[in-house]
Structure formats: structure tokens, C-alpha cells
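Give me C-alpha cells for this 356-residue protein.
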Amino acid sequence: MQDGKSWHFISQKGFFHSFLTDGKQLIASEPWSLFNDKEREEDWRISGLQHLAVHQQSQQAYVLVHQGPPESFEDPGTHIWVYDLASGNRINEIKLERMAISIAVSQDSQAQLYSIAANFNLPFLFQMYVYLMEGEKSLEKHLKLVLDVYELNSGEFLRSIDEIGNYPSYIQVWPATVKAPMIDPVFYWTISIILALLWCRAAINKLQASQEFAELFAAYHLVPQSVAPSMAMILPCVELLVAVLLLLPATQIEGGLASAALLAIYAMAMALNLLRGRIHIDCGCHFGGSQTISWRLVTRNILLACLSLILLLPVVTRLLSVGDILLISAFCFVIGLSGMMLQAISNLRSAAMGAE
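Here you go.
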């Protein structure tokens, strides 16, 4: 099988051969044995029709094996042995849920292992009865081939996919030609929490000064004046919903999209009024201090919308440690404190300009 510019083969006797090609010449590396002497005495050997798969990023080879006589090299395999290609050492062993005839691995960020396995629709005792009374051929009509899916690194069985055809024998995995950037869960959760706190604060401020916000919302002249009070009541509820979406792992992507959309709408509302020359409208970002709309606030909202879209990126799969949780808390505290200080400075500046 091909692995970039390398080609890998396994001989019937269990020797691993690799060849490197640049399009002009073929360079063979020293073959190495999959099995030690003890394993050969125990009749371990390669299995099935598609017995080799290589994960390119980790440079690990996955080999389908079983125990049997030499002529059984195409029989279904019971185990997958994992080898490090650099050293030739076996580093892992995966016991299959069902015997398999073919295996393959995906090359994406959350790689999975696939196997074509046989599944009989009869209990084992009935299988034996049919085999003894009617022969091996009669068992074929009760045989169904399924695709079993495993987590690549741990070998954990995930699920089976039925109805994959009558007699499939090879698995062709779609190549992962484009690798999406991934974000560490520490930064992912920091962004989610900061945005959720921002929306909570905005919604609470609006609810605490509902009458003032209703008047401010009407001053933007974005909707008919008859519906402006109702919209002013709905908007804080929408902001609270966005905050909840951002904090729930199952809805963080939807929360990121909703946050980006809402921030983009706010930016367009301010930009539209600035273009109209209505520069003395309060932004409505907070209450207890006045801050008029400006192109600086438009830019801020656009940057926050871009930050929200980062939540659409795939996250590196790993468990958060206690240190990660403390780091997230520290990030949120520093960013929140910095935001409060910048807001206080902006309020003082606005008050000074108003006094002049």
C-alpha cells in the first residue's frame, strides 16, 4: 500500500518490505519480521484480503493477524497488531469484536479503524447445526458482512454499519487532503466562557434598565416604532440564550454562530447610523455610563464576531486536567479584569468629553 512516497508490502511469510520512490528510482529498505520466533511457533500469521493499513501522521502500521496453518493466510483475522514503522516494534494489540477480512484507517484528526467483519443471523448452536447437517455452503445465506468501526489509538469498539453490500472485500478510505486547523480545549473553553459572560452582562444590563434600553433601541430607527418596545424586550432574552448555548458542550458551535451573527447585526446597526450622521446615539453596550457609537465600536464588534467564529474549528480531543481548568480560570479572570478596566477608562473619557 502507498504511504506518501513510500510503498509497503507484507510477504506471505510475515516480512514487512518498504520501498521509497521519487518517480525515477526505487529504493528498498531492509525487510523486518512481524513475528518473533515464539509467535511463529504459535502459528501467528497475516490474515484476510486487505491485511495492512498505515496511519501516515503517526507512522504506525496496522496488521490483521490470526493463528493458523500456512495455507490459512487469507482466513479472517482475529487481532490487529500495531507496529511503529521507524523501529519495527509492536506497540499495541487490538482484539476485534468479530473476525475480519479487511481493514483500513482514516487519516483525519479523529482517526478511526475500519474492518469488514462477518455477522451471522443465527445463534451459535444453530450455526453448528446448519454446518453439521447441511454443510458450509448453507451457512453463506445466513452470513451478513458489516463494517465495524473502532477508535484508532485506543482500539475501542464504537459501532457497526449494516447493509454494506453483498460481498465487499476491500475498504477505500477517502483521503484527508485538507487538514483543518484545530484549537486546544483550553483556548476553546476560554473563548466560550468570555463570550458567554459578555452576553450575560449585556442582557442583565438591558433587563435592569429596560425602559432606558427601549428608548435607546427606538433611537436607532431600525424597525418601526410600533414594534421597537417588543424587540427591546426580546433582545436580552436572545442574548441570554446565546450565553447558554456557548456554555453547553453540545451546542457551542451553534452558540458561536449565534454570537457572531448577533455581533455582526450590532456592528451593522451602528455603521448604518454613523453613515446617516447620527453620531450622538448611545451604543447601548452598558448602562450607568454613556458611550456614543463610533467606528471603533464597529471594529470591536467585528473582531468579537471573528472570535466567535473560532468556536467552529475542531477541538483537539483530550481530557481537561486540573491545571487546564486553573489556566482557563486565570485567562478568564485576566481578560475580564482587563475588559472592566478598559470600560472604566472609556467611561471616564466619555464623561470628560461631555463636561467640555
